[in-house]
Amino acid sequence: MSEFCFHCGQNIEDVRIEFDGKIFCCNGCKTVYEILNQNNLENYYELNEKAGIKPEKNQNHFDFLDTPLIFNKIIDYSEDGTTLVTFKIPVIHCSSCVWLLESLKEINKNIIYSTVNFTTKTVQIAYKSELYKLSELAYFLTDLGYKPIINLETADKKPEKVDRSLIIKIGIAGFSFGNIMLLAFPEFMDKEGDIWLHKYNHLFRILMFLLSLPVASYCASDYYKSAWAALKNKYLNIDLPIVVGILALFFRSCYEAYEGISNGYFDSLCGLLFFMLLGKYFQQRTYKYLAFDRDYKSFYPIAITKIDFNNKQENILISDLKVGDRILIRNNEIIPTDSILIKGDAFIDNSFITGESKLIQKKNGEKIFAGGKQIGAILELEVIKEVNQSYLTQLWNNDAFKKDHSKIDTLTNKISKYFVIFIFIITILSGLYWYFVKNNTSQMYQVITAILIVACPCALALSSPFTIGNMMRIFGRKKFYVKDALTIEKLSKVNHIVFDKTGTLTINKAAKINYEGEPLTPKELQNIKAVLQNSNHPLCRSLYEFIPTNNNYIPVKNFEEIIGKGIQGEIDKTHIKIGSPIFVGDKNLAKNDTSVYIQYNGKYKGRFAFSNQYRKNTQNIINSLKNYKISLLSGDNDSEKEFLKKIFPAQTIMKFNQSPQDKLEYIRKIQKNSGTIVMMLGDGLNDAGALKQADVGVAIADDVNSFTPSSDAILDGSSFEYLTKFLKLSKSTIHIIYICFFISFCYNIIGLSFAVSGELSPLIAAILMPISSISIVTFTTLATLFVGYKNFKIK
């Protein structure tokens, strides 16, 4: 009797090791089992029985990873003792592999976290590089049975090669389908008197059986794996009825061919899988198109200040940055690409990357990774990597910035689960009817197979992702960059909208500014502008644009920005303060308007008074939101309260002098009301906390670096007037999804009626299934394009 290793499941031939009442094929498997049990990870074997990978003997394959040149080429990121690396691990094959690799921190205390991408067979690991070598990490994975593949291709981090296994499967299924049809052709001819055909008919059946074997085993393997994984994890999925139909058709064909009853249904089996695989290929190609359409250029319409060797400044898109360009990074700005520090005092916050809020000081000549945020004075950097090669492009989809799972996906899965149960009941009742009432066993198998195929709810599962994906592209073309599908669903349910004022409802550059106080010399104006250049606060940016001096870069020392108060810095031993009256030293200076007060070398100079210029059609936009509850939160004083009352409805809640924490707490408070779904619109800077707390956080961006991972979407200021239409289209998206659900159910009901009556062959059912999927995708595309054209004239 054969024995199998408890860990890897391989047949035990030479070595047989008993431990803890279990049998292992080698000391490596036994060691892994001990490690898992010692760390309370024995659930690994409950996810998938015999799911382990046989460990390789430890050989010196990875010592080269500790060479600095190779280390820097392999890793994704390394800063302050924390390194991120992505390894290609082809042996990842099941849910237990994913579970174990994402539990590495429980086994090895030097590992901070690990994330598996099952599709690409990769694992990204953050580890303590001060205490642990990269080679040691590679050996550790190998000892667990997950040896990383490291070669020139993975080191260069080139795009993954296209997986052609599906194309091969389609080719095998199509080849077998065509040849089996030719071999089955004599069965349809009149055999009387045709001795040759009758004599060699059994040979044709053997050939048909042999041609169908690779189709039933290899071509259908993905369906087997999916259905088995679902059963092991005690849930039902849409692949289960397909597998039952395939097996029923194959074994029934073998039986009839062996008994000489007929040549079976090998042609139907191969045709079924051929058309289903074609449908799967179509889905994959469409998903790939959607993913390609959503690259970083679509999501980050962010400008960066480029500086030349004559200190002349120019705002350009980050997508236009090239290696060797020099850029300026202000306080609280995200560094868009890997760079070298040229000038300035760098204090980098890498919390977007590592999750730890800790400032790291950098010196001139040191490398600064993309995704870090400068806290302090302005920096001059030299670009060493293009944006699409830097770490920033991975941040948008980082799990750390995702919220809850989509309820639409949950609804789809829930409907699919009950749908599978319903199909099995219909299948059993139909089988019993044809077996006992009609007494037709052959037709019973035809009916069962046809039901299981035509009723596959794949069209149902396609409705949500394709509809939302199309709408995301339409939004993107109108400069509304939505982070994920969940955001559109949440937009459709929003019933309370919270507006920030400065930088959101107002246009910073268009603000009317008047100076009151002691006249400022050109030199003083130039120094004030140099300090303003270090801040991204909307008032600072407006004042910076207003002051009529050249844009030459002037270094500022000891720059500090105190949220809610102001900024300060030193130029040639001259101390400059810009901000609130209290901040510059005298609260009695305060006026009931929006002003920025100036203290120059310890002496109060005057103030710049702002008269806000509101965005185009602001009042019409607010009036169109009459079905929503509206709140206005502003960090400024209430000087424009009376004017705002004319724009907003009478029931609008208005709060002024709000700190970032006040805004966050207000949103948290109203979210406690049952059924309240809040959308916050802010400038993406001081409003980061409120944007993250809101159910939907929308950052308004004009021409500055307004990127914030706390937001769910970025809305270009020029498209603010379309806000109501975006909300309306999000509701239309959900309506289209429900229409798709209805169409899918109609397909299944009609198909089931023909299948149960025995008037639908398995082959025709297999042809109809991908056609239904294609029609759903076509409908969603046309429907979303229609509503897009209706609202935006987008073709």
What can you tell me about this protein's structure?
It is built from 28 helices and 28 strands. The chain is α+β, with helices and mostly antiparallel strands and 795 residues long. One of its GO terms (cellular component) is plasma membrane. It is a multi-pass membrane protein. Keywords: Cell membrane, Ion transport, Magnesium, Membrane, Metal-binding, Phosphoprotein, Translocase, Transmembrane, Transmembrane helix, Transport. InterPro entries: ATPase-cat-bd, ATPase_P-typ_cyto_dom_N, ATPase_P-typ_P_site, ATPase_P-typ_TM_dom_sf, ATPase_P-typ_transduc_dom_A_sf, ATPase_P-type_domA, HAD-like_sf, HAD_sf.
A few lines on this structure:
The protein is α+β, with helices and mostly antiparallel strands. The strands form six sheets. The protein has a seven-stranded mixed sheet with strand order 16-28-27-26-17-24-25. The protein is globular, with a radius of gyration of 33 Å.
Largest sheet: 7 strands, mixed
How many distinct helices? 28
Main CATH class of the largest domain: Alpha Beta
Q: Spell out the CATH superfamily of the largest domain.
A: HAD superfamily/HAD-like
Report the portion of residues in β strands: 15-25%
Mean pLDDT: 77
Distance between the termini: 68 Å
Subcellular location: Cell membrane
Membrane topology: Multi-pass membrane protein
Main location: membrane
Keywords: Cell membrane, Ion transport, Magnesium, Membrane, Metal-binding, Phosphoprotein, Translocase, Transmembrane, Transmembrane helix, Transport
